[in-house]
What we know:
- By secondary structure, the protein is mainly α.
- The chain has seven helices and two strands, in the order H-H-H-H-H-H-E-E-H.
- A two-stranded antiparallel sheet has the order 1-2.
Amino acid sequence: MGDFLNGILVWFESTHLLQQIKDVDYVGLFTNPWFLVPFVAMVLYLLYKQAFRDLIFVALFVAVWWVSGLDYMQTMVVDGELQVNKVLPVLFGAAAVLGFVIYLLFGRSD
């Protein structure tokens, strides 16, 4: 089992996925019609189907993606040392978002 997990980790590192995510040009992405047209079509479809829960999930995903690129997140580690005073607000915010997602998935009936 350990060899299997190590194989997955080696494959994941070989794809350089984290670096690709960091190098995304946000302005270019949201002005590119090859991304924007399907994204807007998906949002309009979710509105048409009145799938507000799914629309909230998409909005949360975009918001977390946007927040992860802020300068605040880039300064959480200074000289290889984690800044606890900057981690706690992120931790409490993530806990609130996770609680909201759990409420949407399990706490409500459609």
